[in-house]
Every structure is written in structure tokens, then in C-alpha cells.
Amino acid sequence: MKKKIVLAYSGGLDTSVCVPWLKDRGYDVVCYMADVGQAVDPRPAIDRGRKAGAVKIIVEDLKEAFVRDYVWPSLRMNALYEGRYSLATALSRPLIAEGLVRAARKEHAVAVGHGCTGKGNDQVRIEMGVRILAPDLEILAPVREWELKSREEEIRYALKRKIPIDVTKKSPYSIDKNVWGVSIECGVLEDPWNAPPADAYQWTRGAESRMPRPEVVTIEFERGIPISINGKKMSPVRLIEALNRKGARFGIGRTDMIENRMVGIKSREIYEAPAAEILIAAHKDLESLTMDRLLFQYKEELVPRYAKMIYEGYWFTDLKKALDAFVKESQKKVSGTVKVKLCPYKAVVCARRSPHSLYRENLATYSEKDQFDQSLAKGFIELTALALRKDR
Ligand code: ARG
Fold first, then answer.
1. How far apart are CA 171 and CA 311, in angstroms?
2. Mean of all residue pLDDT scores within the chain
3. Which of 55, 63, 164, 354 has the greatest number of CB atoms lying within 10 Å of its CB?
């Protein structure tokens, strides 16, 4: 029997070319396609995989698992890498690693493979996952090794191997998509001085088209997880998709940034994540209403740390588990409702309420309902300053 490899497969040029390349190295290739909400018809990719010579093609719908086990923990942390990137691509990689390992076990494969380049973060995230979950599996990364130096060479190779690729339809960008967002790079975006052309954006509308009038959405949370929009209960995936559609009409969730990759280079990346932007703003606001000061401020300090951990592929770690347990505990009172006004390019929280609200109007008010004892403030300041004075 020939040795088997399970290849993380998208049906794009790179992973299609990986199939015959791996066959030439003596493997039976099983293509593994994870549906994480990229919303493309998988049929052409499946067909291409077969024609490229795969012995089997597995398609797995991981959308729900992705949201439940990856997106929600990240939302509960309000995670943003370098303050801006809501981590759509980064979150999906450990899930794909898990799927690859699962498929490899089922298929009795000795190896797994992927089509990531040697310059990016995704190779690290996927391989870290595989290394930790299944250290015995061999990992192959053809794109990192092969002799094909350019897109054109890859196309020539594909045509020679009779893989049906649609060269004309190829967008000038490299795009990675899932329910939590889109990541776009390459082409004219490689010059940071080039503003992104309108066609770079996949979901969101820009100022070149007329924006709708602002719209308020009401989002209900239960323990830090959104459960309904405008009073309508929705499944997690549906809820995110609905907010993506609404936000996209206003150009909400766009980010254009230079980010620090793990491998030492800076890259220019465009992101679109309307639901993520709306939900993080709403969730954080509800936390500010329901968490006491100590917990709220402490949790805030963890955000950059947690986001960096996800970005760098430290998903299957004890630290990640421990932080998730802390965050879960922190969400016990984060239930309630937030109103968010969708405006051009911005989601603005405009109202919030919760049965666990710690806001006390009788303490905050400047009206006659005031019950705050202002005389206490003098002593408070005196003692706070005491430790800092140099005159004693
Ligand atoms: N820079 C992002 C990350 O490291 C996205 C990487 C994939 N992007 C892409 N357009 N293929 O998570």
C-alpha cells in the first residue's frame, strides 16, 4: 500500500498544484476542505482536486465549531492583534490543523500537508497545531520547497498536469475568507503608499457608493455571547452573517494596516470584519457596565497578550486554556442588551442595559437625587497623595 497524505486543500492554484507534486513524491493524496464560511461553491474545487489526481476529497462543515470554539472565546476577550486585526485568518488555522489531524487518523495517513508559503504566519499556526496534537505525523509544505518560482510557472505546471484552472478569473489579490472576516494582501497593496483600490474589498461598500442612512441594531448578550439581533434569536453563524451584511453596507470593519509577522517581516494587509467590529464594540461596552473596575481593567491588560498568542499560533497550550477559563468566569454577569448605531465606516454604541448593571444613577447624578457623599473625597485625596509627597 502506498503512503497517504492529507492535504489542506482550497482548490486555489497553490493547493491544486500541490496534489500532483505530492503524488510524484510517492503519496496517495487525500484533499481536506474545511468549510469555515468562505461562502464559495466547493464543486469546482472538488472537480479540480479529482482531476489533479486526489484519491479522495473530504469536505467538512466546520462553521459552527469555528464560531463556538474559536470566535466566541476571542470575542469574549475582545481580541485585536496590534490593536486592530480581529484575527479571522489566525483563528481558523488551529481549527484546520485539528481537522487535518482528525482526517489523517481516519484515513490512516502518515503525513499532512498544506499550501502555505514560508514567509507567512499560517504555516506556523497549522504546523504548531499538528506538532502538538499529533507529533508522529510528518508535515509537508510543498510551496516552501518546490522549484516553481512564480505564479506563471505554477500555471504552466498545472496545465501540463491537466488541472483545469481558470487563469482569467484570478483576482490580483491573495484572499482568505471565513465568517469572522476577510484578509486581503498582494498586488498593488504591496506598496504601502498605494491606497486600496475599491476592488480590493470583498464585502464592504465604500464611499464611492451612496451610504444608507444610519441604522440602530439591538444586540442581546448572554454571558458575553451574542444571542439575538433586534429581538430575534439566531444561531451563532447566522447572527454573525447577519451583522456582516448589515455592517458591510456602511463600510464598517475595514482595516488597512502594516502588521508585524512572526517571521520578522512587516506586511501590508487589508481586513474586512463588519460583524467583529460591531460585536467587539458592543461586548466591551456591556463589560464596562457589568464588571467591577478591578476585573474590567485587569481583563483589558490581557487583550494584547491573548491576541498575540492567537496570532502566533499558541492555540493548543495550557496558557490559552487557563486564560479561557479566566475569561469564561469573567463573563458571568455580562448579559444584557446593547444598541449600536451603524454609521458610515463606524459602529457607535449608543445605549446599553443589563440586570447586572453596576451603574448607579443615584451616585452618578448631578441632580437632587444625588446620594454621593462628596465630603469623603477630601480625605480620599489626602491619603492617596500622602504616599507620594516628598515633604515628609
Ligand atoms: N496577515 C493575516 C494573518 O497573518 C492574514 C494572512 C492570510 N492572508 C491572505 N490574504 N491570504 O493572520
1. 26
2. 96
3. 63
359: alpha, beta or left? (left if phi > 0; alpha if psi -120 to 50): beta
Per-residue pLDDT tens over the stretch 344-375: 999 999 999 999 999 999 999 999 999 999 99
Spatial neighbors of 350 by CB under 8 A, at least 6 apart, are 216, 339, 340, 341
CA of 184 to the centre of ligand 1 (A): 7
Which residues pair with residue 140 across a beta bridge? Answer: 113
Distance CA 135, CA 269 (A): 32
Sheet holding 215-222, edge to edge: 232-233, 225-229, 215-222, 336-343, 346-353
- For residue 169, the model assigns a pLDDT of 63
Q: Tell whether ligand 1 has an atom less than 6 A from the beta carbon of residue 272.
A: no
Domains and CATH numbers, the chain: 3-160 (3.40.50.620), 174-353 (3.90.1260.10)
What φ, ψ does residue 273 adopt, rounded to 5°?
-150, 70
Can you tell me which atom of ligand 1 is nearest the CA of 311?
12
Q: Which three cell numbers stand for residue 139?
A: 508535515
SS3 81: strand
| Alpha helices in 161-292, H assignment, sequence order | 236-248, 274-290
Q: How far apart are CA 122 and CA 113, in angstroms?
A: 12
Beta bridge partners of 339: 218, 351
Q: Could you give the CA distance from residue 252 to residue 278 in angstroms, rounded to a whole number?
A: 8
For the question of residue 389 being annotated catalytic, the response is: no
Is a pLDDT exceeding 80 seen at residue 198? yes
Asked whether the beta carbons of 243 and 333 are under 8 A apart, the reply is no
